[in-house]
Amino acid sequence: MNESHIRQLFERFQAGSISIDDAVSSLRNLPFEDMGFATVDHHRALRRGFPEVIFCSGKTPLQVAAIAERMLAAGSDVLGTRASSETYAEVARRIPDAVYHAEARVIVVQKEKKAVGRGLVLVVSAGTSDIPVAEEAAVTAEVMGNEVGRIFDVGVAGIHRLFAHRETILQAAVVIVVAGMEGALASVVGGLVARPVIAVPTSVGYGASFGGLAALLGMLTSCASGVTVVNIDNGFGAGYAASLINRRDTP
Amino acid sequence: MNESHIRQLFERFQAGSISIDDAVSSLRNLPFEDMGFATVDHHRALRRGFPEVIFCSGKTPLQVAAIAERMLAAGSDVLGTRASSETYAEVARRIPDAVYHAEARVIVVQKEKKAVGRGLVLVVSAGTSDIPVAEEAAVTAEVMGNEVGRIFDVGVAGIHRLFAHRETILQAAVVIVVAGMEGALASVVGGLVARPVIAVPTSVGYGASFGGLAALLGMLTSCASGVTVVNIDNGFGAGYAASLINRRDTP
Amino acid sequence: MNESHIRQLFERFQAGSISIDDAVSSLRNLPFEDMGFATVDHHRALRRGFPEVIFCSGKTPLQVAAIAERMLAAGSDVLGTRASSETYAEVARRIPDAVYHAEARVIVVQKEKKAVGRGLVLVVSAGTSDIPVAEEAAVTAEVMGNEVGRIFDVGVAGIHRLFAHRETILQAAVVIVVAGMEGALASVVGGLVARPVIAVPTSVGYGASFGGLAALLGMLTSCASGVTVVNIDNGFGAGYAASLINRRDTP
Amino acid sequence: MNESHIRQLFERFQAGSISIDDAVSSLRNLPFEDMGFATVDHHRALRRGFPEVIFCSGKTPLQVAAIAERMLAAGSDVLGTRASSETYAEVARRIPDAVYHAEARVIVVQKEKKAVGRGLVLVVSAGTSDIPVAEEAAVTAEVMGNEVGRIFDVGVAGIHRLFAHRETILQAAVVIVVAGMEGALASVVGGLVARPVIAVPTSVGYGASFGGLAALLGMLTSCASGVTVVNIDNGFGAGYAASLINRRDTP
Amino acid sequence: MNESHIRQLFERFQAGSISIDDAVSSLRNLPFEDMGFATVDHHRALRRGFPEVIFCSGKTPLQVAAIAERMLAAGSDVLGTRASSETYAEVARRIPDAVYHAEARVIVVQKEKKAVGRGLVLVVSAGTSDIPVAEEAAVTAEVMGNEVGRIFDVGVAGIHRLFAHRETILQAAVVIVVAGMEGALASVVGGLVARPVIAVPTSVGYGASFGGLAALLGMLTSCASGVTVVNIDNGFGAGYAASLINRRDTP
Amino acid sequence: MNESHIRQLFERFQAGSISIDDAVSSLRNLPFEDMGFATVDHHRALRRGFPEVIFCSGKTPLQVAAIAERMLAAGSDVLGTRASSETYAEVARRIPDAVYHAEARVIVVQKEKKAVGRGLVLVVSAGTSDIPVAEEAAVTAEVMGNEVGRIFDVGVAGIHRLFAHRETILQAAVVIVVAGMEGALASVVGGLVARPVIAVPTSVGYGASFGGLAALLGMLTSCASGVTVVNIDNGFGAGYAASLINRRDTP
Amino acid sequence: MNESHIRQLFERFQAGSISIDDAVSSLRNLPFEDMGFATVDHHRALRRGFPEVIFCSGKTPLQVAAIAERMLAAGSDVLGTRASSETYAEVARRIPDAVYHAEARVIVVQKEKKAVGRGLVLVVSAGTSDIPVAEEAAVTAEVMGNEVGRIFDVGVAGIHRLFAHRETILQAAVVIVVAGMEGALASVVGGLVARPVIAVPTSVGYGASFGGLAALLGMLTSCASGVTVVNIDNGFGAGYAASLINRRDTP
Amino acid sequence: MNESHIRQLFERFQAGSISIDDAVSSLRNLPFEDMGFATVDHHRALRRGFPEVIFCSGKTPLQVAAIAERMLAAGSDVLGTRASSETYAEVARRIPDAVYHAEARVIVVQKEKKAVGRGLVLVVSAGTSDIPVAEEAAVTAEVMGNEVGRIFDVGVAGIHRLFAHRETILQAAVVIVVAGMEGALASVVGGLVARPVIAVPTSVGYGASFGGLAALLGMLTSCASGVTVVNIDNGFGAGYAASLINRRDTP
User: Fold this and answer.
1) pLDDT at F5
2) Is the residue at A115 inside a domain?
3) Distance between CA atoms of residues G215 and G205, nearest Å
4) Are residues D231 and D151 in the same domain?
5) Measured between beta carbons, which residues in chain C are less than 8 angstroms from residue D240?
6) In the prediction, which pLDDT does G50 show?
7) What is the tens place of the pLDDT at every residue in F6-49?
8) Who wins on pLDDT, C132 or E10?
9) Residue C158 and residue A201: Cβ atoms within 8 Å?
């Protein structure tokens, strides 16, 4: 459509119905996105197997459901994060195909599953309280077309539990480490593998964990190379970044 | 060697020179690394094209030179970060092949360059003062076998300078964004591309930048999906993580 | 009245009913505001088209209603910020003309609208959760006599949405940028325009946004010249400052 | 030039030397800034009486001098902030017209002074140690075409010194308040005037001033409406924002 | 009783019923408070007109009432701070003389009022939301035998309201300044008077007030000499310290 | 069992049913914990008189009860911390022997009490609000086989109350000091005794206590040698560490 | 002189040389300080035995010497704080009577010593490194006319050293407690005495003392009533406040 | 001597030279330490094999040497921490027996070495930059009579290096873990052993390590039970606490 817009301009110019001055001026005044620039490529890329995302926290169930319907109508899949069961109920009332991952607090509407990932995305988490964030990461990566493995409740304070999963960890293409009180876990895993590790600090903990700050700082200062960090509790962001890293169809 | 150690155990057991009890007991008391576990795989992985790393800050030129010599003797390449010109002088005195990347403060000793990267690792930085950290990231990625592009001195406050490089940015396989006073740059780049973006906050700035804290927090809370963050000023870490993401020979 | 007070002093002195010593002494003991100083000019200035303001948070509906009535009786317009719907109900019961801007949480009682602004005050916000603060800024500026434009839900992570509004942004006399997780937006807008930009960090966000701190620091360290910042969530303050900047009748 | 680029495209299309497909494709691939968009308007605006700015801190005298020469060659005036006397010496060696404002640590090269401001920009500062930042603000505003007043060394702890300048303060079009240990000064001045007040916290102080944090927070939470804040020690930013507010030729 | 304990020791020694060794040993093993040391002097001092204090927050109404009864039985007056109306109800059920200062959240049981203060303790507060803390300070000082004045709702943003009370302020023996968003008030008052000023930051405010931190830091870095600070919201502490300063019967 | 696993390997190798290559390979692939390593010793140590621990906060009563049952079935004692009375009710329904220490919020199931401690573990706390944390420490130490003393409600502001317990304090083998608003208590006790002191900051307090930060920092910077610190409110951790220190059967 | 200014106004009015309107108008336009208001009373109060104060840090020796000369010429005594020995050398060159208290880094020029204090101002400090701040407090109080006692190097970690001075402490009219790593000292002293205690946190310490923050927070949250706090390292402020509290000639 | 003081009192009373009233009164007025209380026991305990300690930082070489001489004269051994080589030179000039541990920056003067420890005190450190703090801990423990082991440069990022020392770690009576950028090390070691672990965060690191804060918080929130923490860089404190734990002659 954008291109046809520009094409018409040339045709009208060729037909003599606008002067060269007006043609140049028209171009300058075109809305940005009509120019077929990066943003469109970007969107196209996003649509290659990746659904659009709704951050449900702070939106009413009705608002979320309305946005989801509009997305579906536009041909997009839907991923809703931080969704309460009330929000899901409203979405499911209108979109019966919607699936709710309760622990991850994620709503998914997906027509067909595409396998776009190269290898295994592995989600490792430290404590049982870290599981909601870990599940958000895992479900996000699954919806984005990856095979996802889960190793939950392994901590550095009982490091043999982690080491029992050594083989699986070494086979992963990307590892996501989710931890609140054991930020150290990211360092240990980062030291074991030669693959990218994405660390997710969680706000789980008390006292000097200061809402995830302790885990965040520990993960950032970790000496293990290859570890990068996302925002506290941002399981979605980790799953999304892991999916970008793991995509089969990229250079 | 480790395997031969274990193999000898079986042979001595077979030969009857030790009892089954002693054999089992011996195994338990073997030093961990003799067991041929993950760590060895890990090391092997590390050696596939990646040199060992010396963090020179806080070490004397003599210490750095000694470590470098030992590494070379063991057949490893050498990457020394945060190296002063004094440190380089001492290293170069003993290892004439050593190369100094002054702006990056990096010393490199590399026998042959291997091209192990899939696509372009692009380093984007905001201000001229961010360049040392950006160069550390770029040189690290180069030494680790990647083709590296550099777009320096593009900031969001004059966003057209960034957009002039749109084509290059869209072609990168991984983008590293280095910024101190313009943490926003990571968000903007993250919104443009559909590839992994690694953000490096720098301690450049004054006042409320609080030694890089402002950029760090801004990068972490960025809404752009696909952005992950490393420690303040950790150009090496970003270059290393980008290299892991970009490796050709991984799943 | 103050002047007459002083005038009487001179008259009583002239009439010989007080000595010069007593006159001088009287002057020294006059309450400060009776002297007709700056504060009166200041108040007069404030009354030129600007209503008085009630910060409703922490006051009961009854208290707010009582203060509003007293203001009206004194001839002032009323602007109540951070007002719940309960507070509005009580105010409306007594002052039927009171208008409630629900999203902005603002109560307005205004006899006649004066147009005192020179140009357009434009309010730009990043996420849907930032809208209450953005609306507080917008309604404040409207009540203070400005034409106000709104561009909501444009973020740097999808910067083409922002650029689609380029023309409007360039025409504004003052721009207010409201953002919680995308503090970067202030930098980008500040880089686009040659007009004053007032940035309002919001407490929207989670994790390392630390109640608005990330956005606040990012906005303060922004390299874009012409950007100034108000307190976290202080939409009113931004609308007020924008109105002062945009006043037609000032030097 | 950009326009001529586009114009040529239409002419070559008209002449039949390129197809309509190639023309459309060409347009998409043009470097962004060639399109004559906002950024050019923005630049033009910047050039209306405002020199370009060099942040000298972290650059060598040679680098600063080189940049300054390039700017002058391009017809721009030059404003160099955070410039040491060594930097000035090098600049002056090459550009004899360069002027050094020692206390402000600012270098200025300006062909002719344009008066573009509407009213008085008044810089008020609390302590003698705040003067360098206050001077940076004042010189910036002067170079940008404003009449600038200075009231230094007035603090709230001896508030009568401030009030002795009441008349001047009330006549200002914009007031810049610079204070480190007396962040309160911004509140007091903000309460006196009905004009925009820009507060600049400084890093002057000790103990719980924590490098300007105390003043910054105090200024942000100030109850005085119309006060906005810039980064700690950012005199330039305050002078620049005040100039934008005070420009005669804007809506 | 303690003395009699020691006296008995001497008498038993004199009577020959214990040896000198046992007497010395006995002394060493006496409980500390039996020795009649500083703590007793201290207690005696405390009892001179000052009631004991119960911090009610975190105690049940029953617990508070029980403690209050025990104190009364021991002849002490009672001051209960941070007391809810439920707590008061329980206390009043058992001690009908108990008085509740609702705004100050303080319960008082006092047999007779002693006037032990030299001059006026004046409590000045900035906003209506600061009043509970200001009242806690005022009631504490009253119960401790001082004449107390109150000037509420005077802020630096409208400094003429403060100055209208100049005479009263200058007559005070001690001034307590209570403020959350206008920490500046302590500086201004401190600059007006030549008497001790005790500043109480309050947690009132939002955004960058960070639970009272902004006011606390501002008050600590104030340039006004003679200002000291107590904990955030600690009205009781300020009233207590003011009472110690104002006591008639001290050196 | 692990040993028998390895033993079988040798026997099958001896019997010729596997080659030496397969035997070595098998060993490498054994799950880590089968190797009889440190972790097993560690577990054995833990089981010597110490029950397993469930952190109940964030788990449902049903989850806690299920875990407790599984532990009992495995022959372990049970210690559940941060347990609500609802959680206890569910546990007690299934395990009638379970005991609830309400103030400590601790559930204990213990078959027989073993006395494994050398000396007295003494828990000293400052305020009544610190008691839950102090009790958690005390009950933990008791369950782990120590004789435990309690001295509650002694603070440095009335230091004679502390000194009245001098004898008891000097006899303790380990002292745990629990304090929120009186972090100083750890320094004072640390200065009195020549035994290890474990300090537990609590989140009790208001204002500048910042959730226990003030007490934490004060305890860390204490000049008294021999004082170590655990996380804010971590009574369990202090009780556990004290038990390790006090164990009779260690070197 | 101010009064004579006003007096002249009345006389000129009486003489008919100005109209009543002009007289009233004149009064309004008089510079504030000419009005003989509070500030003058304040100044007079300050001069009653108290010298003016120069904060020398950040001023050159020449500047300090010049200010000191001007003060002397105006009849004032001089107190210079944070003065280096270089600064003293310059001052002494011009004002031979100037005295330097090296440890306190204080310069004093005082014509005659007035004894204006009621009782003893006692300065108690914890470590030898706290002595410079303690001496600044002590010298300030001495210069302001108080008898000053010093008890240095007493800490809570060896509390018997403090208690050995019990008698002296109990006799003080005001106690100043100076401590960096032993913030607890303020609580302990505050619990011993029934007199005002002013706590001065110092920046002495390392690690988690964070430049005095640990001591500051500990002193603020102290449970001991009657303790107020000044800025980190602000010995002068404490000495000044203590002098105000201890003045003989106040209500 | 103290006892003889008290004994004389009884004798003089017995002899009739003082009345019972005077005797009781005398006792009350005795200096505290004359009473033979805890502090003396405490001192005696300290002297059992433990030298006195001088914190040399902030003291001149002359001061340190003088204190050391006084201690020796009083029969005490000497331990000087944070001592520069200049300080040692001055001490050695006067006390030829003084030994300097350069890496630990510790001066020791010890007449005879007493072995008072039960088991091995093991110091484990992560990076080469952590060694000075680790050595301070090790030398302190050695001087206090313990057998000390050292395992340096083992980090969690290469956890096999740590595990190679498994046997030694499991044999230790107390483990001290010293780490700056790998705070995780304390968790891992704490999970391996069933003995007390003392964690020492160091200020080594950059960026988000914030002077040791990251390591400190990570160590405090560690899930491994039995881990306690001392101040950042406080190797001495860890060595001292470990010695108290390891003492042979305690309950």
Assistant:
1) 55
2) no
3) 10
4) yes
5) 225-226
6) 62
7) 677 777 777 888 877 777 656 544 433 333 332 333 333 333 34
8) C132
9) no
Confidence of residue G233 (pLDDT cuts 50, 70, 90): very high
The answer to whether residue C115 sits within a structural domain is no
Poorest-confidence range of A197-211, B187-201, C10-24?
A: C10-24
Q: C37 to chain E: which residues are within 8 Å by CB?
A: 160
Predicted complex ipTM? 0.81
- Among H60, H75, H109, the domain boundary falls at H109
Of the candidates C181, C182, C221, the beta carbon closest to that of B207 is on: C221
pTM: 0.84
Q: Please check whether residue C155 touches B, CB under 8 A.
A: yes
Tokens 């309760």 -> residue: A102
Cβ contact, residue pair A195, B118, below 8 Å = no
**Residues spanned by the domain of H83:** 3-109
Q: Which of A43-52, A180-189, D23-32, H203-212 has the lowest mean pLDDT?
A: A43-52
Residue C148 and residue C79 share a domain: no
Sequence-distant (≥ 6) Cβ neighbours of residue C50 within 8 angstroms: C77, C144, C145, C243
Do D218 and D139 share a domain, yes or no? yes
How many contacts (CB atoms, under 8 Å) link A and B? 113
Which chains share 3+ C-beta pairs under 8 angstroms with F?
Answer: A, B, E, G, H
Q: Is residue E115 part of a domain?
A: no
Report the residue of H121, H244, H247 to disrupt the F interface, i.e. the one with the largest count of F CBs within 10 Å.
H244
Alpha carbons A27 and A45: distance in angstroms, whole number? 26
Subunits with at least 3 CB pairs below 8 A relative to chain D?
A: A, B, C, E, G
Give the per-residue pLDDT at H37: 31
H or E stretch at A221: helix A213-221
Residue pLDDT, tens place only, H81-103: 999 999 999 999 999 999 999 99
Looking at the structure, tell me whether residues D104 and D168 fall in a common domain: no
Facing B194 at nearest CB: one of A37, A46, A170? A46
Residue E40 domain-assigned? yes
Chain H hits for B62, CB-CB cut-off 8 Å, are none
G102 with G133, same domain? no
The CATH number of residue E155's host domain is 3.40.50.1970
CA D198 to chain CA centroid, nearest Å: 12
Helix (H/G/I), strand (E/B), else coil: A148? strand
The residue among D154, D156, D144 whose CA lies nearest residue D123 is: D154
Size of interface A-C (CB pairs under 8 A): 39
Task: Using CB atoms, pick whichever of F158, F188, F214 lies closest to residue G218.
Answer: F214
Residue of E nearest to H29 (CA): E37
Instruction: Give ∠ CA F81-F84-F86 in degrees, rounded to 5.
Output: 135
Judge whether C27 and C19 are in contact, CB under 8 Å: no
Q: What integer pLDDT is reported at residue B24 of this predicted model?
A: 63
Give the pLDDT score at A36: 31
CB-CB under 8 Å, G10 with C24: yes
Last residue of a domain, one of E72, E88, E109: E109
Q: How many domains does chain B have?
A: 2
Which chain G residues are Cβ-neighbours of E43 within 8 angstroms? none
Q: Is G146 found in the same domain as G101?
A: no
So what's the pLDDT on residue C249? 67
Instruction: Specify whether B204 is located in the same domain as B130.
Output: yes
Residue B35 has pLDDT above 90, yes or no: no
For H35, the closest chain E residue by CA position comes to E28
CB-based contact, C59 to chain E, within 8 Å: yes
Q: What are phi and psi of G134, to 5 degrees?
A: -65, -40
CA angle, H2 then H4 then H8, to 5°: 120
B76 and B130 inside one domain: no
Task: Inform me whether the C-beta atom of residue C33 falls under 8 Å from chain G C-beta atoms.
Answer: no
Which of G159, G205, G222 faces F221 most closely, judged by CB atoms? G205
Q: How far apart are CA H139 and CA H85, in angstroms?
A: 16
